Structures are given as structure tokens and as C-alpha cells.
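Q: What would this chain look like folded?
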Amino acid sequence: MCLAANVPLIESGTTGFNGQVQVIIKGKSECYDCNTKETPKTFPVCTIRSTPSQPIHCIVWAKSYLFTEVFGTSEDEVPEFDHTEDSENAVEIENLRKEAHALKEIRQSMGSEDFPRKIFEKVFTDDINRLRNMEDMWKMRQKPTSLDFDTVSKSSASGGEVGNSVAKRDQETWNLAENYIVFCDSLRRLGRRLQQAQGGETNGASHVLSFDKDDDDTLDFVASSANMRSIIFGIEPRS
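A: My prediction, written as C-alpha cells:
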């Protein structure tokens, strides 16, 4: 619009403590697209954990937070997260650390019948309700909508499908019930793998699982988790 009207434009943006300012004058300076913008390699932890607005934010959350906390190492060791604190986000980052610690405690129930329910209610119900209660956060954003385990479970049961059959339709965009089915099924598959690996350890080391895009179990878990996260925050899910 500014270029069409011959009005000088000052483009600026920030990510964490990194900023940039660019003056754009039609016919005299380079345009916004003249320089290739580098894809961010890290994301502010508060964006990923509290205020996602893009599918990539939900994917990073599922892969680098949820998967690692349940089956791998702590998110504090994940390079995709920027944990930089300032006066505005220090309290929220501390709350996020408490959430991660609670998830580690739930991890102890891996292999039990109610393990999927505990994980689901922690990240898709309780954590979301906590965010919803932070009124100032949603003055300029749409509030997320928490999910109810029993409601989604009943909805998925009416379809009569199982996790593997849904997961094989990986070129389709799954609905909420289908994502729930794949989420619970992949959670159990990964749980069995981790317990079997830990049972075979002889040196006292604690075994962990790593995400692999060619591993159907890890891919199903991340895809279904990211899609349910997207649905909660009003973001379009991906296949």
C-alpha cells in the first residue's frame, strides 16, 4: 500500500531481544523481499508454551516440549527454545517450569491404564485452563479452548476406528476424534518401547527416546499432539 502511494515505509520487528529496522522508499532503497529472511532457529519459550499463533509453534511444542518431557530429556536442554527471562516474562517462565515438573511426575505412571488420561488432562485441560485464567494475556488474542478427556473419548469411540488405521491416512487432515485416537495409541506404543528399553539396561543408565521423522511412533505422537494443540488455539491443523 505504501509503495503504491509513494509513501516511505519504516519496517521493524522483534523476536526476544533481537530487533531490526528497515527504511523502504520506492525506487531508492531495497524492498522488504530483496534480502532473504533467515528462518528462526529458536523460539521464545513463552510463545511456544503459552501463546502459539502458527502451526510451527504447535509442532515445536509437541516435538521439543511434550515428547521430550514424557519420553526424553528436559525442555531446558532443547536448542529450539529461548529461555531468556526479563521483567515481563519471569513469572510465566517459572510457571512453565512447574508445569514441566508436574509432567515428569506423571511420567512415573507410564504403562498404567490411565496414563493417556493423565497426560491428556495435564496438557490439554489443566494447563489450558490456567492460561485461560490469565485475562491480560487474551486482551488482544483469542482465548484457547480446553479439551475434556471423557467428551473426546466418547466422540472417538463412536467412530469405531483404531490408532493404526487412522495413522495410515497420513495425507489427510485428522479431526479431533481421530487425533485423540492416534495420540492415545502412539502414547501407549512409545511407553512400551521405553519401558522395554529401560528393562534391558544393565549399566544403570536411564534410557530415553529421541524423535525421528522416519519413526512412525514418534511421528504419530507429535502430529496428533500438535494438531490437538492447534485446535485448542484456533490454528488450522496439518496433515
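Residues 157 and 177 are 8 Å apart (CA to CA).
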